[in-house]
Each structure stands twice: as C-alpha cells, then as structure tokens.
User: Fold this.
Amino acid sequence: MGNKLYSGIEDDIKRKIINGELLPDEKLPTEVELIEMYNVSKITVRRALQNLIDDGYLFSIERVGFFVLSPNKTMFTLKFDPLSSGYPYASQSRIISCNTMAITEGGSNVVEITKLISCKGLDVCVEYYLLYGKSIRQEFTLHNFNEDIINRKIDTMLEYAKDERIELRVSLPSQSICAMLDIDANDPVMFVKISYYDEYERCYAHKTQYYIKESIMLKANLKKIK
Amino acid sequence: MQNRAWNFAENGWMKEQTLNKPAYQHIADDIFDKIRVGVLKPFEPMPSEMAIGETYGVSRLTVRKAMDILEKRACIITEPGKGSFVREISKDNFSVEIDRRKLCGINIDHIHVLNVAIIESTKELVYKLQIPPVTRVIMIERLMYHSDWIIAYDVKYIPYYTKIPLTEDNLADPNFEQIIKDRASLYTMDKELLIYIETSNDEIAQHMRLNAGYPLMVLDETLSDSDAGVIGWGKTYYDYKTVAINGNMIASI
Assistant:
C-alpha cells in the first residue's frame, strides 16, 4: 500500500475541484465534518488541507474555513537572467562613462554610469545606471577610473535593495543608443528598467538596459501560489 | 551542523570594531556576508537569538537589533512561533502579471477569428507540441482589437488527435487556456512563456495592416498538463507600442 491516509483525502478533494463538483470560492465542509466524512483524525485532515493550500487548490480564512481558490493563470515568475537566455556566450562589460552630479534639492547626489556589454566581440547591450544618495558623489569620484571598484560599488549598492521593480518593453533606440550599439534607428531594442527600493520604500537606483533584438529572450513560468 | 555555520565569529569581526561601527551593525553585516557567500543557505533556520548572542559575546538586545537590520534588508524572514529563516535572495526573479485581456492597461475589446484550419504538422510543430510526425494540428488565427486598432495577431496550435470541443465562445477569449479549458483542468495546466522581439514579415504586416519590418513583441506560450503533456502552443505578435510588462521582486520563503 504505502499510501498515506491524507493523500487519499487530498486526491479526493482535488478530484472534486477538477471535476467542478466544488466551484471556485465555494466553502469546504468544516474540519469536524471532514473528520466524520472520511473517518480520520484531525491531524490527517489538517495535513491534507495544508497540502491543498500549498498546491494552490484552496485558501483559508482564519476562523471562517477553507475555500476553493480560482486557478491562477496570469501570475508568472519571470526569470530575468540574461546570462542564460540573452547571452548564449560569456559576456564582458566595460564602463564608458561615470559622471557625478549634485541635485541641490534635498541634498541628494546622483551618479550616472554607462556600460557596454558585449559577447563574442559584438556589443549587445547598453546598461545605464542612475544611483542616488547623499554621500554617493564622494564615494564614486574617489575611484573615478577604476572599473573594478566602480563595479563592486554598484553591486553592493544594488544588493541592499529591499524591493525591485521591473519594466519590460520593446522600443526604438535613441540616436545615442544607435551609435553605441551600431544599429539602425529602425532596429527595435528590448528596454528593461529595474528600479531599486530601500527599506523605507524610496527608490535609490535605476538600471536601464537596451538589448539588441537578437540577444534577448526572457522566460516566465506560472507562479506557484504559496 | 549549526556549529560549522556559526564558527565564523572569531574570524575577525571583533578586530574590525575599531572602525567605530556599533556591534549590532557588525553582526548584521557579518551574517549578511555569510548569507551572500552561501555559508548560510536559503530556507535554513537561523539559530536562536540566545545562541547568536553567545557566539558573538553580546547581549540579546544587540542580537535583536542586528536581526531587525537583516529583516529590513530582506535577508531573513521571521515567522511567529517558528523562528527566523534565511530568505532566498532571488533578485533575478520577478513576479509579473500577464493577463491577455489587459496587457498594459489597453483592453482587448474585440477578437476577430481569421481562420480555423486543420493542417499537417510541420517539423517545428512536432518539436513544439511533442507529437508524432503524422499528427494533424488545429491552427487558429486571430486578430485582437482595441476599438479599430489592431493590437495583436495571434496564432495557436492544438494537436488534433482527440475530440476537443471548440466553441465560438472559447475563441472569443484572448487567454489561451480558455480556448482549451474543456480539454484539461485549469488547475493542473501549466504555462511557459518566452518573450522576445521580432519584426513583422509580409504576412503578419498584411494582417495587422502595418509595414513589413515593424517592431513586434512576441509572447510565445506553451500549455501543458501534468497528465497529457503539451496540449497547445501559440504565439502572439503585439504591436510594440501596446505592451509593457511590469513586475516586482519575489519575496520568497
């Protein structure tokens, strides 16, 4: 046998949901009723219900009960990993410019960095950073021409993000992007903008990337509901 | 196990205290580094505050402060009654909503079915649908409108070897799963999306009334079912001006 009691109950409820005997948002019998129906212990019922919640079939409202969840077909997990999908080969990046500017209002400063990413000798992406912060100007001017240190500083700053937001679209390149990537004004590029937020929900950095169309393919899968 | 992970206290953080950082900041940075380099792995439970305090030789209050910092940095997550856990730093994963009825706030208010046909499978279809080479395939071509504006040209392929009720109602929904919802349960269905750029060829340009070479965002979608395997594949070519995909970082554990 080897079949656990709870998995039998789980399968039975699953089958009813798939068949449409139980409809989305419908309330399930109470735990006590389920215990009587299946003639098992509370622990077994709980285990089965918890597994069904984890698999995205049910949701629970405390003190009210268990309900059938409508199937999720629109929330995706986007893996933004250009190294595996966008660049089939190892890529290299180089810093084109690193400028610092003062914003008088609020005493915040801005560092503006432009990078070019290439793979197999072909420039495939322009990466443009805007980093905000009070003391950021001094930090970056100190290391103005050391690429390694600038890269490490960017990485450390971005790693502290409490939240990140992404925006993806196809756009036509500006003149300067055309020049940097050596493409025509009619060649579409993938525009990817990631905004970084700190623990106070303030945006403190932007990373904007422009990929030539041959270099990028993104993957997304349905998100497992937790 | 725990001892191995927590043997790092003597590795010099004490010496660094000359840098005038408060002790809790040091502990937070130290644990952060351990998570980053993988000494502490995602989903691993954190030792108790007492244990951490002992390891670093500080009070529980200091540990509490350090844990607060780590939680704000989204490195750990505390579950009431269970303790703290290392969170997966999955910063390259975003949660995005892709609902074909309203991508980017532009509603699709009308769908025109161009063509429904049963065709012989091509090499690409055999590969994408994982079907035997002789299987015939249903092809559905549609145009999606926002008032007079053609937002997208859409083509779907469904293997023909079983009876699938295809009703006109089902074809009026831009979401692929609705077309074949009678074939497999929405609960057991999985979707895989690829997002990339193409420019319009003559055929697509003609359908969408655009010039050839016009930029398009392609959403390439494969539907599968845990029992039946691949049950459909399709591509939607969107006018590039109509689509933006937005998402948030996934906070996981």
Remarks:
- Confidence is low (pLDDT under 50) at residues 1-18 of chain B.
- Chain B touches chain A at residues 36, 72-74, 89, 91-99, 175, 177, 185-199, 213, 215-217, 240, 243-250 (CB under 8 Å).
- Residues 23-37 of chain B form the longest helix (15 residues).
- The first strand of chain B starts at residue 76 and ends at 79.
